[in-house]
Design goal:
Helix content: 40-55%
Number of strands: 6
Largest sheet: 6 strands, antiparallel
Strand content: 5-15%
Oligomer: single chain
Order of helices and strands: EEHEEEEHHHHHHHHHHHHHH
Strand order of the largest sheet: 1-2-6-5-4-3
CATH topology of one domain: Endonuclease III, domain 1
CATH superfamily of one domain: Hypothetical protein, domain 2
Structural class: alpha+beta
DNA sequence: TTCCAGGCTATGT
DNA sequence: ACATAGCATGGA
């Protein structure tokens, strides 16, 4: 990854492994705004960045460049990951298609809330709901910080309903009560099995959402979230249907520690191809 | 009108 | 342990 950190921006010079559309539109994050072609604003925790293409380089404008060096996972070699993944035709196509995907290092609390909202929902509505929730955080002038646990605890059932959560408003109220006294930082050192078990005890968190939280919130890359799109991919490849949990097991067995990366390329590939038909 | 969206909870077997 | 109805909401 060829990039340069300056005082108020990062310049990304190698765009073979960095494409902002791929990174933000591959379903891992819901807190961003598209301004135009290769031109986005992304919000994470109490930070904001403006990302755009200029002379074949990406400019990441932010008051906190070091936060976004970590956020965009700049130190990981995605060329190597893609080469290791491209071991069959399906993966070759998926990797070629979403060549600029990177798995973001997002704020854990934000990931938990976002993916509980995501269940049986569509991405555009999830984005709207998350933007409304963000407005319950601190106003920084041009944008809001994501609310902390205390601020989340003050959001009412009626507010969540008004934010378009639907029946998930109940889940969120209960979930936030469950998380109220948990030291989230301490959970990061837990083993993956115990961690998943704990996540499954949270309201609104089932197998698929737990895998998303493990992957996007804890960077456990040996998890493979299976949603409706991955179910289609699984059928394309194996020509058979199973329960999502069993599909996930098969896929983790196959991809090992690269499962999470494989999942992102496949999800983006399948969902984008479908969108092109519409 | 019906189906679908990054599924989960509750209930019944 | 596995199967399935019901669930809010909006867009196609």
């Amino acid at each position: 990854m060829d990039y340069k950190v300056e005082k108020d921006k990062i310049v990304v010079k190698n765009t073979n492994d960095f494409n902002i559309e791929h990174i933000l539109e591959c379903g891992q994050i819901f807190t961003y705004k598209k301004l135009g072609q290769s031109n986005y604003i992304v919000y994470s925790k109490d930070q904001m960045a403006h990302i755009y293409l200029k002379n074949k380089n990406y400019i990441i404008e932010t008051s906190n460049p070091l936060y976004f060096v970590n956020f965009f996972d700049m130190q990981t070699d995605y060329t190597k990951i893609k080469n290791e993944l491209a071991k069959n035709d399906y993966m070759k196509n998926a990797v070629r298609f979403g060549y600029g995907i990177r798995i973001l290092k997002q704020d854990l609390l934000e990931v938990i809330i976002g993916f509980v909202i995501s269940s049986n929902n569509n991405i555009e509505r999830i984005k709207k709901t998350m933007a409304k929730i963000r407005e319950c955080g601190i106003d920084n002038g041009t944008y809001y910080s994501f609310p902390n646990m205390n601020q989340l605890g003050k959001i009412t059932f009626e507010q969540f309903k008004a934010f378009g959560c639907g029946y998930r408003a109940n889940y969120l109220i209960k979930l936030i009560k469950q998380l109220k006294d948990v030291d989230l930082r301490a959970t990061e050192s837990m083993g993956t099995d115990a961690l998943k078990k704990w996540l499954l005890s949270l309201c609104g968190v089932g197998p698929k959402v737990a895998d998303c939280i493990l992957l996007f919130g804890y960077h456990r890359s040996n998890s493979f979230p299976v949603d409706t799109w991955i179910e289609k991919v699984y059928f394309d490849i194996f020509k058979t249907k199973k329960s999502p949990q069993n599909m996930s097991k098969d896929l983790v067995n196959y991809f090992g520690d690269l499962s999470g990366y494989a999942q992102q390329y496949l999800f983006f590939y399948k969902r984008s191809l479908n969108a092109e038909l519409v």
